[in-house]
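To illustrate the input format used throughout this study, we show a single complete record. The first block contains the structure-token representation of the backbone; no residue identities are included at this stage. The design step must infer an amino acid for every position from geometry alone.
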């Protein structure tokens, strides 16, 4: 495939791996903050090809996985109500809540629909004025502009039957929380290219400076990741700590300012609980007062829901990068993509799903070298 295969060239991959091996003189731990990058690393075996001591840590880079359990339970409570059409991207439907999931509710008769754009949900609301249409607005900064435009469109159209359940999370505060953890062993980050395509990388510069931690904005193909790893290692080996951009074909420092303006117009920054991680200050978005009428949680009064994580699931440790999926006693047996216990086994960006789909098993040892 033109414009894809050139980023999967095995000859260039071997050259980059040789350069990485030549550059590394001591152990380092690098964290990728993107589930898409995690899937490429695991599927292509990049973590196994790296020199001994150079470790890839899989961070909380899946917005589906870090969506708090409370919001999943609220989504299910709203979807179960009569006269509601609940819309969502497909990867949210099988994420387990405390008692059920959206797909199971759909099987029992709830009107739960997969959409491919939040504007699809707006169109459904236009076509069904006698129904309440709710869109599950989940994601990092990447999906926030489109969700903002859906809310703006709903207001411009005067829709009274459209609302959004917002679960947006922001990457830089999560990186700061990781670095503030006394047990943090992360030496450098690979930042998510799609997030930076929207936001640029200015927000990362104070983090690199304060914590003296290299941050490399990286793409998603094997050569992107190998080059990003090489750039991070070279910084570490020379004592440098700055933001570098590997993903030059898609990202520049200022990002997409029009998209940023849409986000600022519709959303306000709040503290947000990340599933398995806990509350992170200023790490989430909620609707700004001007658009509060479109807040589904307030419209349907689903506060006060009690939540309970599955006792056998170690999703929190997976998302924090302190354990691997193969460390979980339920992995591959009690927890599979068909019957998941936690979000990381469901999402197309989840670490557990990445390991399972790549054939990683509990008796397999996954180390660099």
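Output of the design step:
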């Amino acid at each position: 495939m033109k414009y894809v295969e050139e980023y999967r060239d095995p000859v260039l991959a071997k050259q980059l791996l040789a350069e990485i091996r030549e550059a590394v003189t001591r152990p380092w731990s690098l964290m990728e903050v993107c589930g898409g990058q995690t899937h490429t690393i695991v599927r292509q075996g990049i973590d196994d090809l790296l020199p001994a001591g150079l470790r890839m840590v899989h961070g909380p880079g899946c917005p589906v996985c870090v969506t708090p359990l409370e919001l999943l339970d609220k989504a299910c409570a709203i979807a179960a109500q009569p006269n509601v059409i609940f819309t969502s991207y497909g990867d949210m439907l099988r994420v387990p809540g405390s008692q059920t999931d959206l797909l199971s509710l759909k099987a029992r008769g709830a009107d739960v629909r997969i959409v491919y754009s939040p504007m699809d949900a707006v169109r459904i609301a236009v076509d069904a004025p006698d129904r309440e249409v709710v869109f599950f607005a989940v994601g990092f900064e990447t999906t926030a502009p489109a969700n903002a435009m859906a809310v703006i469109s709903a207001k411009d159209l005067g829709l009274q039957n459209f609302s959004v359940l917002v679960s947006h999370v922001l990457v830089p505060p999560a990186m700061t929380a990781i670095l503030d953890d006394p047990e943090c062993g992360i030496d450098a980050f690979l930042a998510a290219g799609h997030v930076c395509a929207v936001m640029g990388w200015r927000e990362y510069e104070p983090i690199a400076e304060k914590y003296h931690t290299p941050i490399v904005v990286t793409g998603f193909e094997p050569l992107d990741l190998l080059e990003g790893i090489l750039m991070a290692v070279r910084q570490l080996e020379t004592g440098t700590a700055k933001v570098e951009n590997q993903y030059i074909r898609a990202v520049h420092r200022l990002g997409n300012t029009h998209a940023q303006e849409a986000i600022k117009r519709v959303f306000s920054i709040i503290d947000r609980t990340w599933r398995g991680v806990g509350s992170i200050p200023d790490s989430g978005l909620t609707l700004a007062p001007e658009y509060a009428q479109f807040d589904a949680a307030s419209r349907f009064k689903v506060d006060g829901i009690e939540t309970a994580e599955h006792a056998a699931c170690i999703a929190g440790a997976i998302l924090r990068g302190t354990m691997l999926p193969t460390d979980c006693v339920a992995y591959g047996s009690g927890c599979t993509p068909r019957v998941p216990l936690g979000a990381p086994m469901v999402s197309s960006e989840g670490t557990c799903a990445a390991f399972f789909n790549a054939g990683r098993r509990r008796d397999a040892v996954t180390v660099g070298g």
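Structural context for interpreting the output: The two ends are 31 Å apart (CA to CA). Residues 364-369 have pLDDT under 50 and may be disordered.
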